[in-house]
Amino acid sequence: MSMAVARSITPRAQRVAVVTAGFGQNAVLTMVTTFILVYLIEYAHVSAAGIAVVTGIITATKVFDAFADPVMGSLIDLTRTRWGKFRPYILFSAVPVAVLSALLFSAPDATEPAKLVFFGVCYFLWGIAYTMCDVPYWGLIGSAFPDSRERAGVISNVRAFGAISLGIVTLGMPWIARWLSFGDDTTAFGWSLAAALVAVVGMGLYLLAFFRTRERATSALSERLTMRVLFGTLVKNTPLLMVLLGSILGFGRLIVQAGGAVFVVIAYGDEGYFTLIGAAIIVGMVLSSFLAPLLLRLATGKSLIIWSTAAAVVLYLAMYVVGFANLIAVLVFIFLTGLTLGIFVVVQTTMIADAVDDVERRTGVRNDGISFSTLTFVSKIMNALAVLAFGIFIVAAGYGADSAVTPEMQAIVWASITLVPAISCLISIVPFAFYRIGLPARGEVLAKAGSQA
């Protein structure tokens, strides 16, 4: 019966399910990360001191989540069910993520300390639940699509439609909240309804990754995995470690997203301009995400990520030289760096998947759960470093809510979103240059052929 069900899911249906699931999942993530502070300040009326507490809660939770990712990955690799090792977590994490996402936008009508406690508990639980849904999702892609070319296409579509989802939610969420407020003004209740709607629809789409996919069979050796074997294999996976190190060193790629809203206020006096900058990044990422599989047919992942990163270095340096006075020029440069970022996120994921295949070939152990958990781990570390680096420059510039903007202040902040990414990307090329996927030795191929004969 299970074989008949598995055969009924065509490769195309499986690809559509995974991409759609990623679209829904990213909608929920974008809603929480982009609008939670807006909701707490404007509609839950949390004070400046309270927002400082909220920031501390978010930072502490992200650090905890980052180090929880490998633990989650190892638990996945040790899981054995009739559904596989990834799909059960996808099934049982969807509802908690949806419920907790809605609760984050439903602060109680109580004192501020009570609101902060409510937020802290919900956000911590949300972080755990989201880790449980995110790590198995990326591992499932590596398992469900063993062919590297097909997998690269799926990853590119996931990244591209994820960027589209980000744009739709970023632009549409305030309008949905206003519409559901059923009046002329947007209300806290309207935001609560909007959050619940996006959470239910998003995680409903995410469940397609459970119902419309199948995992590859597990090798006999992988059936006897232990925690020691898992982490030992991870440490020995040099190609994977090079991708992780190169990614972390390239954290500067994310500084524009982390500090762009503040930068436009300092440079142009209008935070609304960040919509243009965000759109330029998203369009660039979407286009290059779709283009990446075609480029991977012409070049290896290693060469593509090195040359696209080198191009990013040149673009950031040129952007610094041109300056920010001409907004149109800035948008063109941001779009072009978005192209390099889209290539990076696609190729980075495919390189990790290829490294997992390589270590399985060499050791007989497939540890895609813990290996793909490093993808989410690195993403969180990169975001944290980008925020930290931008914050250091803001402090050095002396910028505050009531500060008068000076040319020196503008110059310091401009350097933070141009020179820092350029230096960061340049350094990140070094580990990627040492990424090598081994091929079977000729003797190994001949021995295998002889045994089959």
TrEMBL record:
Recorded superkingdom: Bacteria
UniProt cross-references to Pfam families, sorted A to Z: MFS_2
Amino-acid biosynthesis in keyword set: no
Transmembrane segments: 16-41, 47-68, 89-107, 154-177, 189-211, 240-267, 273-292, 304-322, 328-356, 377-399, 411-435
InterPro entries assigned to the protein according to its UniProt record, in alphabetical order: MFS_2, MFS_trans_sf, Na/Gal_symport, Na/Gal_symport_CS
The keyword NADP belongs to this UniProt entry's keyword annotation: no
UniProtKB keywords: Cell membrane, Membrane, Sugar transport, Symport, Transmembrane, Transmembrane helix, Transport
Coiled coil (residue ranges): none
Localization annotation: Cell membrane
Topology within the bilayer: Multi-pass membrane protein
Protein name: MFS transporter
